Amino acid sequence: MKRLLNWAKRLSVAAIIVSACALPFSQVLAQTPPNVLVVGQIAEPKSLDPQAVTAVNDFRILMNVYDGLVRYKDGALEVEPSLATSWTISEGGTVYTFKLRDGVSFHDGTPFNADAVKFNFDRMLDEKHPYHNTGPFPLSFFFSAVDKVTTIDDSTVQFKLKNPYAPFLSNLAYPTGLIVSPAGVKKHGKDFGRNPVGTGAFKFAEWESNAKIVVTRNDNYWDGAAKLEAVVFRPITDGNTRVAEMLSGGIDMMVEVPPDSVAKFDGQPGYQLFEQAGPHVWFLILNIKEGPFADKRVRQAANYAINKKALVENVLQGTAAIAAGPTPPAFSWAYNDALQPYPYDPEKAKSLIKAAGADGAELTFYVTEGGSGMLDPVPMGAAIQADLAKIGLKVKIETYEWNTFLGKVNPGLEGKADMAEMAWMTNDPDTLPYLALRTGAWPDKGGFNSGYYSNPEVDDLLEAARSSTDQSERATLYKKMQTIVQEDAPWVFVANWKQNAVTSSAVKNFALQPSFFLTLHKTTK
Amino acid sequence: MANYIFKRLIAMFPVMLGLTVIVFTIMAMIPGDPALAILGSYATPENVEKLNRDLGLDKPLVEQYLIWLGNLLTGDLGRSYNLNRPVLDEVLERFSATLILAGASLLLCSILGLLAGVISAVHQFGWADRAITFLVLIGISMPSFWLGLLLILVFAVNLKWLPASGMYAIYGGGDLADLFSHLLLPAFTLAVVATGVIARLTRASMLEVLRQDYIRTARAKGVAERSVIYKHAFKAALVTVIPVIGIQAGLVLGGAVYIETVFQWPGIGRMLVKAISTRDILLVQGGVLVVAASYVLFNLLADVVQHLLDPRLKS
Predict the structure, then answer these.
(1) B 84-143 near A (Cβ less than 8 A)
(2) Of A27, A234, A371, the CB nearest to B160
(3) Higher confidence at residue B247 or residue B263?
(4) Greatest Cα pair distance in chain A
(5) Which of B 252-281 lie inside 8 A of A, CB atoms?
(6) Distance CA B8, CA B159 (A)
(7) Closest Cα of chain A to B9: distance in Å?
(8) What pLDDT, in 10s, does the model give residues A31-73?
(9) Cβ within 8 Å of residue B78, ≥6 positions away
(10) Is the ipTM of this complex over 0.95?
(11) Residues whose CB falls within 8 Å of the CB of residue A377, separated by 6 or more in sequence, listed in order
């Protein structure tokens, strides 16, 4: 027996020695290599084929490997030249002619030219294209207005649209519009997404599944070579683990810091916290077709009754700002500054409820457990339920997993629920109202107007704004639309998410973009 | 013996086939589909329909299943909708990571569990027994994902001795020492509950054996005490414990789902969670097949070892 105990002792001594050996070794590991930026991402990307993906998480990598014909200006949501140096728009707004940048090559050495641009859009839009089978391309409808792409000469390309469509330029700046190497697609076929080739500031080096994606500096970048030697993107799905990696020095930058952990970094030595309001809006869809919310007074009452300040400060811990209307302020040129959020006024809400005779009404509220851009939907739903109870509305919550939730909400709330949580992130001020507030966007017509809002004046404004190519005219139309929609209150306007990121203090020349993309071209470490 | 193993292996096939039918049906029954998951808030009926057509999901369910089964016979598990790569590549890569984690953890819990159980039994009601029983109770009761976070906090964030997550260092590394330093925390976390179970069972089983007549006889004959315990008692007790270790192997594989998430271990558990939430049916099928097969094989292995150890079963 003694021997057995001795054995146990020896074993524990061995264990201590082994961990001691691992000690100096892993302390070296905890530091990231010099001039290489390690970014903690929220998930493994689906693909690095820009036309095949839909998630912001994937866009963050893509924007550093590819360029589009145009791109968003630093810190804004307005477009500027990128692979195209200039462009003209025809009188009717249906023909766009782009002059392309000379002397640009893809990372595989093949030239970027008009043929490459045509190849990109034909691959995505033409079902008969020999490489259309390298898809599917879920967001190709961004370019469904494109009728035909023609190469005029080697450095001029022309897009003919079926009808005037103002968001076209902005969509070209979106990842779906990034230009891939035709030679790369031909070489790798369906596996192009794992062997991406673009023209961007960094070129793809390595993808080790579920561990890391490495991109290295493109020394011949047309906009000046990046300072960083390489960037490593690591998928770390669990928020707490991401925070632990940041604290232990395993990553230099993390995106989407959980609200509870912001205080660990904010103002702490060694870290920098970045925040940037983005093109995001979190709202409640109200069912206008039937039930208490058919009455505008009850909808306005809900807007007055919900304490949005408490939601963004307590539940979301300052990671969002109060929303005033349907358009996020990030679209500064189209945003109506005169709009004030509905103030928190339970007394006014009560009197509106009384006037409408909706006192004690019972409501069904769809809440989701999570989902893209949904922030902290369960506690938010509970807080909203409590606020509405204070003005005499009995809210019954039904919680669903995200995909199930979408399957219930997108076909319309009629006969099922009175209200539902929802959030959208878009790259232009056109898409959300066009798909979610127009009469022509009711669910049975293929849109997302799940609460059945209908106002002919808003319909006209949205159509006009979408087809005009004059930005100031578009701005006027959108500002007017926001005033009307806020008054009609088809939604409860709740919050605009502020995207956040933390970097170690060694990281310089970094800023978050209102597009929510991550651009590391000028960043140093 | 060979005959027995062969029969058990043959019996695996109907089990696996039934399993794929069940998984396929469940995945088809839960609301939402891959197109909806991919498109998110852009999921208009029109877009969903188009994407489903592109993905080949517009065909009747039975036809989809038969196509999948036909491809399976040729060794083709299909292509994941969400990872855009062959299911087989992904599953094998992920499963080997899980095997490393689960294997290390199984080894750890077997050694620690048996050792603790034997010490506990030999010193019944002594201080060592009490201490071990107390620790085992804590180990069994503690949620392992929480323990994992706690260990990360202590060893990675505060002491900076071990890496917080992942399987290899992201730059450099990649060798055995690197793997070992990454493996230590997750394997230990995963082993804790199983260690407790094995320790308790070993203790009970040893106590029972130690009361047997032949032990008394051995002692009376003057056989040295450590020989009585190790040669006579422990070997007999092992026969009861081995099948339980086999069952623990299954539980360790299941528990790997949480631990892989906490430690970002690139294993099959984490893959399955993601595949289910994105309705990636083919990936779920591939993953479940591999996990189920390994579960059955582990149990078979345990049975075989038990046969070899137990002279009564040999005939």
Answers:
(1) 84-85, 90, 93-94, 97, 111, 115, 118-119, 122
(2) A27
(3) B263
(4) 96
(5) 261-264, 266, 270-271, 274, 277, 279
(6) 49
(7) 32
(8) 788 899 999 998 888 899 999 888 888 999 999 999 999 999 9
(9) B68, B71, B86, B87, B282, B285, B286
(10) no
(11) A367, A368, A369, A370, A371, A421
A5 band by pLDDT with thresholds 50, 70 and 90: very low
Pairing of strands A84-89, A79-81: unpaired
| Nearest-by-CA chain A residue for B41 | A424
More confident residue, A118 or B264: A118
| pLDDT number for residue B310 | 76
Q: How far apart are CA A142 and CA B44, in angstroms?
A: 13
Are A255 and A518 in contact, with CB atoms under 8 Å apart? yes
Report the residue from A209, A406, A408 with minimal CB separation from B266: A209
Q: Largest Cα–Cα distance of chain B, in whole Å?
A: 85
CB burial of residue B260 (10 Å; 0-12, 13-18, 19+): buried
With contact defined as beta carbons under 8 Å apart, do A252 and B181 qualify? no
Q: Among candidates B198, B175, B287, which has minimal Cα distance to B249? A: B198
Residue type, B162: L
Per 3-state DSSP, chain A is made up of helix, strand and coil in percentages (nearest 5) of: 35, 20, 40
Instruction: Compute chain A's Rg from CA coordinates.
Output: 26
Residue A330 has pLDDT above 60, yes or no: yes
Residues of A in contact with B85 (CB under 8 A): 191, 194
Strands A230-235 and A202-208: unpaired
Q: DSSP string covering B14-74, please?
A: HHHHHHHHHHHHHHHHSS--HHHHHHGGG--HHHHHHHHHHHT-SS-HHHHHHHHHHHHHT
Residues of chain A with Cβ-Cβ distance to B173 below 8 Å are 29
Q: Which of A304, A295, A329, A289 is nearest to A492 (CA)?
A: A304
Residue pair A66/A50 in contact (Cβ under 8 Å)? The answer is: yes
Alpha-carbon separation of residue B280 from A148, A246, B18, B55, B261 (angstroms) = 34, 31, 19, 11, 18
Contacts (Cβ under 8 Å, ≥6 apart) of A245: A40, A234, A236, A251, A254, B164, B165
Q: What is the rounded average pLDDT for all residues in chain B?
A: 85
pLDDT of residue A22: 47
Cα(A85)–Cα(A163) distance, rounded to whole angstroms? Answer: 24
Contact A33 B115 (CB under 8 A): no
Nearest Cα neighbor of B93 from B242, B230, B240, B270 is B270
Q: Is the pLDDT of residue A18 over 70?
A: no
pLDDT over 80 (residue A17) = no
A369 neighbors A399 (Cβ within 8 angstroms): yes
Instruction: Identify the pLDDT of residue B84.
Output: 78
Q: Tens digits of per-residue pLDDT, A357-404?
A: 999 999 999 999 887 788 889 999 999 999 999 999 999 999 988 878
Compute CA A252 distance to the chain's CA centroid, rounded to the nearest angstrom. 22
Question: Going by DSSP bridges, is the β-strand pair A362-368/A394-400 parallel, antiparallel, or unpaired?
Answer: parallel
Which range, of A175-184, A311-320, B239-248, averages the lowest pLDDT?
Answer: B239-248
